[in-house]
Design a protein that fits this description.
Layout lengths: L1 E5 L2 E3 L5 E8 L8 E6 L6 E6 L6 E3 L7 E6 L4 E6 L8 E7 L5 E2 L3 E5 L2
Parallel strand pairs: 2-11
Antiparallel strand pairs: 1-3, 3-8, 4-5, 4-9, 5-6, 7-8, 9-10, 9-11
């Protein structure tokens, strides 16, 4: 199982970023996927989850209405569209696959600062 995140960077408050997570080594369409984040000095927290076919999604209260999780099973990729970014969104963002043993990507840094 391999998960590779991309799309992070430095953005001003109010800006947008789109994260991608390319998956390989398992039957992507079979499993739910999530995005987590971890800010310096804080525990890793769940940001959003999407069902195996994208019919169901769930979000942390802190990102509802600003972030959108989606997936393209033909491309084995899950996305996180982040709008109206705030400084408190600054963190390393990880994707997670709900395969039997669980699997994490290496993370991508998102920094929201003026």
């Amino acid at each position: 199982v391999q998960l590779v995140e991309s799309g992070g960077g430095l953005v001003q408050p109010g800006g947008s970023l789109r994260l991608s997570c390319a998956a390989s080594g398992f039957t992507f369409s079979t499993y739910a996927m999530s995005w987590y984040r971890q800010a310096p000095g804080k525990e890793r927290e769940l940001v959003a989850t999407i069902g195996s076919w994208g019919a169901t999604t769930n979000y942390a209260d802190s990102v509802k209405g600003r972030f959108t999780i989606s997936r393209d099973n033909a491309k084995n990729t899950v996305y996180l569209q982040m709008n109206s970014l705030k400084p408190e969104d600054t963190a390393v963002y990880y994707c997670y696959a709900y395969v039997p043993s669980g699997s994490w990507g290496q993370g991508t840094q998102v920094t929201v600062s003026s």
